[in-house]
Specification:
alpha/beta; rod-shaped
Length: 638
Amino acid sequence: MVLRKTWQATGLWLGIGWSILWSVVLSELPLIQQLDLAQRDRLIRLNHSRTPPPEIVLVTITAADLKTWGLANEPIIYSNLVNRLLDAGAAVVVLNLLPNWLQTSDHPNNPIKTLVQRHSDRIVLVLPTSSATKPNPTEWRNYEYFLPLTNKGKPLFPPQSILGFAEYEPEAKHPQSIRSTARQASLSGQFTLTHSLERIQVLDSAALLTLKKFKPHKQPLQTPQTPIQIHFWGATGTFPNLKVQSLLSNNPSISQIRNKIVLLGFSDTNNPDAFAIRSPFGELMPAVELQANLLASLLMGSFAQIVPSWLQKALIVLGGILISQWIVFGKLDNRAKRRCWYWLYPVLGLSGFSLVSLVLFGKGWILPITLPLFTWTATVVSVFISLVLVVQKDLIHQQQCEIERLHSIEQAAAISQAKKMLHRITANIHAGPLQELKLVMDRLEMLQFNGGEFNLDPVLDQLESLGHHLRQQLNQTRAITLEITPELKAGLDAGIRAKLQQLVNSGELTLRVIQQLQPLEEPEFNSLWLEAREDIYHFFCEAIHNVIRHAQSPHGIATHVQVSLCQQDRQCTLTIENDGAKLEPSIFESSTMPRTRGGYGMKLMKMIAAELPNGTLECVALPEGGVRVQLSWNQAFN
């Protein structure tokens, strides 16, 4: 549980850190912004079938019209055209001016200024400017000279009631992001007067000011404070467009503008004063038509806004956290990766993100998806690699700890086993050769006490036998080591199998071997079991050597030996069985008569069985011939 919480905390911070880092790095890539723009333009092209509002009419001036008017007469003819539009009943006229007309702005008979003075409530002057979202206020340049003044030199009308700005940047001909002035527009901005730089004025956009004058008695418009995404109603030419020459020649078509908003501007996209932009449909669109799309968006309330940056960042971080926890869960549970529901989590996460995007879109908010998707992809890779490195480091440390722990347990088991072996050897020497030596000494004393001549050959033979047995017991001390038997590290069954193979390869065991060895459930880090396993292995070695010494040719007539190891619940059984000669069952019955020699192997096996949990030893002479030696114990080592 503690490890799981540690990993979850590690994954949490990795998800937060990597998602924030990648969102900052990727947000500056032009590719991300271009992909968002391409996606937005594709949606606009799919949803442009709606008819634009009929309240908007365009009147466009071509380069041929300007050439016909002549440079000196352009402002006069332009003002005459506006007068005709107003006389024909136009509700509001939006004026896009040429910069060279500023040269005549201080003329006493300035026709534009006269227009503004007479029809201030129905005219909007478009002030071209760069992006109004810049932190520093934008200067008005000389456009205030078109505004009429009082005798005291003060503006006759508030500048903000006449001037409305329109944003334009050169990159709008080839926009690179959805925040370009070719796609979004600010509805208000701060500006400064040329002659009074310390005075800051707040201006509405030309579209917003036009809408206010078109509906003066309506409730105040609830306009957003952040830039809006322009709703494009179609390609260039979607809005009704009247030609200038037809209006100047009293064409009946002029009646179409009654009670409508007229946007007067220039249609030649090659003219830099037309401030053309690249529309979502791929062609250049003059500024007057862009203004018409923006005005229609406000008029119909059909516009959207990009979600605040903090909301997008919060969703990115939340997604990074969920991704990291998903990866951590897969790391903690490898079996989960093979299940279908594990891979459904990212699908559900993306579905939830899509649902949030659709809900926001329905509320008029656009959630760019390219940056979150790229950030989450990079976060997946980064978190996975980080966790792999952490896991490897942790695994190496854990393996070192396990090796040290296992080595310590093995050392404790080996030392205990060595002590036990020494104790057994000592006990065997005391119970065997030393007891026999005592009998010999008693016999010598009796002979000496009786006097006379006596034969020492039997005594010498007995002493020689005692010396042989004593050396045999002492030689067993050479086999005592302070290490666990290497063959047993893979399990008791593997150690028995290896021992049998060794005996067969050496030629010491020539019988046919039948193996039925089942792996046991062995506690890996338990010194009591490691010690008991050594004893069971010695039991097996003693039993198989008994088969070789007594049942195998030339000492016996056995043809095979069967070794089986099995476990049922906690009960384990080791059986060694051969098909040798028939033996009397009484040969294995316990006897109170003292042995004069031998029998130490059987005594060792009985001692091992007695030391195991619920250990029992069973030696049975089979009716058809042969012997079955069976050791049983309970695999309960704490």
